[in-house]
Specification:
Layout lengths: L1 E4 L2 E8 L6 E5 L10 H9 L3 E5 L16 H14 L5 E6 L1 H12 L4 E7 L10 H16 L3 H7 L1 H6 L4 H4 L3 H11 L13 E7 L7 H10 L4 E5 L6 H4 L1 H12 L3
Helix pairs in contact: 1-11, 2-3
């Protein structure tokens, strides 16, 4: 289905009876409804209606016309919730969807009922010395590449093309600039403002949003709980789907 939100065509899907309690499912960066369909299937199986949208610039939704920040994605998600009249729904969010959820829940505790954060982003990662060396080397290289004879001698431009994360290099134009704004935002200070019942589901081997982030979220969000799926990575719900479903069932059956 398609709907227009704040001037952007947004693709979304619904699974389950319209008379059931609603669960909004938010996908991760660069993904789409397809990536969270296993979650939607289990939500429907448990007797809820699952609703998921493709964030702007991802999946089948239109990209924004200018670079967006997390605040913009949060504003669009709020408008989506209001348009579909699902204010007060439960929410299950993965990775980048966690950033949007944290921002919305920290500003309005009634926009959601229960929060289920799965390998969620929102805390800026710890920076090692090697990270800073790579970062400043990249910036220096960018400046030196403007000097023609140095660029030709040391092949700086060629090396610069291979720098950066896979997510960043896969993007272009407005979405590349959006990624930079999104990934650098630290929402740690907002966690203590969340009042909702919250469950964190995490893969023990998550390399993108490591387990220490989940433990920090659990410590900061009052009354939250953490369920760790041993051996699973950043897509813990896919790496061990039966265990994920069991954990999700225990949470959603508390209705």
């Amino acid at each position: 289905m398609q709907t227009e939100i704040n001037g952007i065509q947004i693709y979304y899907e619904r699974q389950g009876g319209s008379d059931k309690k609603k669960v909004l499912v938010l996908h991760g960066w660069g993904a789409s409804v397809d990536a969270v369909r296993p979650i939607m299937n289990q939500v429907e199986f448990l007797g809820y209606e699952a609703i998921a949208l493709d964030f702007p610039g991802m999946g089948k939704s239109e990209p924004p016309s200018t670079p967006w920040a997390v605040e913009d994605y949060a504003a669009l998600t709020r408008a989506f919730i209001e348009k579909l009249d699902i204010y007060g729904c439960d929410v299950i969010c993965h990775s980048f969807g966690g950033r949007v959820t944290i921002m919305l829940a920290s500003e309005d505790e009634n926009i959601f009922s229960r929060l289920i954060l799965v390998d969620a982003a929102g805390i800026r990662p710890k920076r090692t010395l090697s990270y800073y060396v790579r970062t400043y080397s990249y910036k220096l290289g960018k400046k030196l590449s403007r000097v023609a004879f140095l660029d030709k001698l040391f092949r700086i431009s060629e090396k610069q093309k291979n720098a950066g994360s896979a997510d960043y290099k896969a993007l272009s134009g407005v979405m590349r600039a959006t990624f930079v704004k999104v990934v650098n935002l630290d929402l740690k200070d907002r966690l203590s403002r969340i009042k909702n019942e919250t469950l964190l589901i995490w893969g023990s081997e998550d390399a993108d949003t490591p387990l220490y982030m989940a433990k920090q979220m659990e410590k900061s969000i009052k009354g939250s709980g953490l369920a760790v799926i041993e051996g699973a990575g950043h897509f813990s719900y896919a790496d061990n789907y039966p265990q994920f479903c069991a954990i999700l069932s225990a949470m959603l059956k508390q209705n």
